[in-house]
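Need a sequence for this fold. Nothing fancy.
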């Protein structure tokens, strides 16, 4: 098997990460969640010699609002954290909605907002929202820091103004105040793990009464980059959100879209959906029910399924930055299913390949290797994670639990026993992933409702049977 990189650095402070980018330049890439980068490396569309992991640096996952009412997001804020943030749900609801619409729980636990921005796909959910929120991005390098408005950050499809030695260290935007309302809507081909066919983010500022004093409308997946619908925005200002004004604005927004035909939808369809989504967003904002049934179903933070459970921890590393060379003897020292293990020769692999090839733990299955099937779900430091998108060196100093370690002294976990009792297995290939997701759900919510069960399993795909028995098994495990 070919190595995915030559050197894997685990940075223990941000200065070290910046210094490494300055040293290696375009031969290096920062990895946080890795949900895009690992796929690009696997497909050989991006071949970095050096990967710099910043996930073990403390303080990078902060979400805060400063005295000037600017919301700041650190570079390690995941989609799961953002969606569940009370601060964002109150002061940046469209961003929380967009993050909740990304992938499925295990993918949201790894993917970061910063990674979403840097990947620079015009279909990415959070870029559209941050464009509508008028975000500013801080880029840091050994040469210093600079601030870039998000509208000047993109140069084309998957192209940004970032220099090879720069790191995106902060995302900042004005918090929505009481006179502002915002909403994010998208069209996807399925309810989970859906790349947007089209998405829109709308922010409306009201002046006196119901008169619109300002508007920002951003459109995604309809041009080489996210775009602002400036003519549509101008048409809203100075009047109330009447049916006529809303319809005219929606038509103008569709006219500003420049979509193409691709496998997810035709240009004609995308223009139609821009009009429909902008109209719906404005109607919802007018009603004041931006958390209603017509919106993305964003649960309250306390009811949100994250698959973190009670054992979640965020282990940080201190001391010097660690280098794992693919041709060196530096071992990966980790805890797997409660046992201390030392692995050599896995420095250039994914966690999935290390578990199967080096440790013989074949319960985690090789499925899509793109984060779309959930067959490789494991727990990394207590959090449900996709092993196929996690570098093996990320396990250094961490705790891993696989399906082999779920039974307690020979007694099956209630979820495992319920799958047997309910015949929730056909070929069984996907079963370990389902079991790991369901077991983490019951740790997080001992009495989940059916919607929470569906959400927990939304990232696990079964290709040879239905989901009725699987859901029934989880419900039976609850009773146990």
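Here you go.
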């Amino acid at each position: 098997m070919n190595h995915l990189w030559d050197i894997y650095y685990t940075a223990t402070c941000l200065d070290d990460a910046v210094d490494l980018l300055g040293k290696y330049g375009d031969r290096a890439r920062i990895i946080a969640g890795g949900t895009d980068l690992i796929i690009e490396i696997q497909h050989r569309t991006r071949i970095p010699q050096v990967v710099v992991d910043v996930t073990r640096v403390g303080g990078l996952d902060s979400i805060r609002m400063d005295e000037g009412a600017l919301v700041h997001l650190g570079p390690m804020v995941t989609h799961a954290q953002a969606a569940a943030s009370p601060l964002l749900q109150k002061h940046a609801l469209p961003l929380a909605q967009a993050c909740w619409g990304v992938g499925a729980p295990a993918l949201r636990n790894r993917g970061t907002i910063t990674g979403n921005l840097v990947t620079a796909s015009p279909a990415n959910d959070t870029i559209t929202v941050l464009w509508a929120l008028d975000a500013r991005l801080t880029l840091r390098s050994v040469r210093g820091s600079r601030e870039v408005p998000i509208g000047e950050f993109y140069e084309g499809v998957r192209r940004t103004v970032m220099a090879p030695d720069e790191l995106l260290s902060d995302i900042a935007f004005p918090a929505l105040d009481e006179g502002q309302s915002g909403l994010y809507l998208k069209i996807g081909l399925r309810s989970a793990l859906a790349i947007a066919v089209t998405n829109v983010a709308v922010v409306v500022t009201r002046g006196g009464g119901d008169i619109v004093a300002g508007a920002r409308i951003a459109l995604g997946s309809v041009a080489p980059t996210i775009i602002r619908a400036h003519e549509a925005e101008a048409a809203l200002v100075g009047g109330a959100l009447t049916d006529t004004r809303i319809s005219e604005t929606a038509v103008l927004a569709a006219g500003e879209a420049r979509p193409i035909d691709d496998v997810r939808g035709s240009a004609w369809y995308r223009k139609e959906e821009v009009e429909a989504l902008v109209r719906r967003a404005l109607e919802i904002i007018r009603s004041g029910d931006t958390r209603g049934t017509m919106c993305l179903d964003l649960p309250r933070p306390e009811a949100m399924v994250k698959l973190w459970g009670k054992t979640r921890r965020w282990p940080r590393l201190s001391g010097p930055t660690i280098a794992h060379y693919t041709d060196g003897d530096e071992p990966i020292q980790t805890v797997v299913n409660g046992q201390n293990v030392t692995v050599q020769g896995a420095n250039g692999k994914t966690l999935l390949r290390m578990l199967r090839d080096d440790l013989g733990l074949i319960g985690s299955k090789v499925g899509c290797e793109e984060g779309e099937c959930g067959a490789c779900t494991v727990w990394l430091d207590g959090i449900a994670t996709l092993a196929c998108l996690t570098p093996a060196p990320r396990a250094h100093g961490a705790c891993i639990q696989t399906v082999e370690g779920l039974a307690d002294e020979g007694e099956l976990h209630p979820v495992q026993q319920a799958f047997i009792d309910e015949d929730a297995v056909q070929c069984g290939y996907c079963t370990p992933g389902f079991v790991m997701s369901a077991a983490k759900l019951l740790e997080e919510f001992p009495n989940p409702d059916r919607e929470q069960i569906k959400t927990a399993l939304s990232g696990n795909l079964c290709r040879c049977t239905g989901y009725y028995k699987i859901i029934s098994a989880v419900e039976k495990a609850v009773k146990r």
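For context: The CA atoms of residues 134 and 477 lie 46 Å apart.
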